[in-house]
Design a protein that fits this description.
By secondary structure, the protein is an all-alpha fold. The protein has 4 helices and no strands. It is extended.
Amino acid sequence: DFLAQMLGFCAGMSLIARLTNHTWKDLSLRTRHTVNACWSHKNPVVRCFSCMLFFWVEEEPPEEEDENGDYRAVATDDAGGAGSGSARNLSRARDRDRNLTH
């Protein structure tokens, strides 16, 4: 009985995630930027509440965003493996992006 309840809970969370993702993708680019500005670490209200509620978590540096406000993909190589996130991979991704835009 408990496992059936957990399965139902997970299915419900999956449905909420899919609906939220679909709704986000349907928003205009301007609306996405507005929402990002409201929930961003740059908003002083959000920053204040996050500092009060999560004081034990160290602050991470913000991730680099491209012109559209989307996060850049990090390149992978055979040596580092997927998601290694090394500086070398990040510079390769930047070089690749520059070559594609010019």
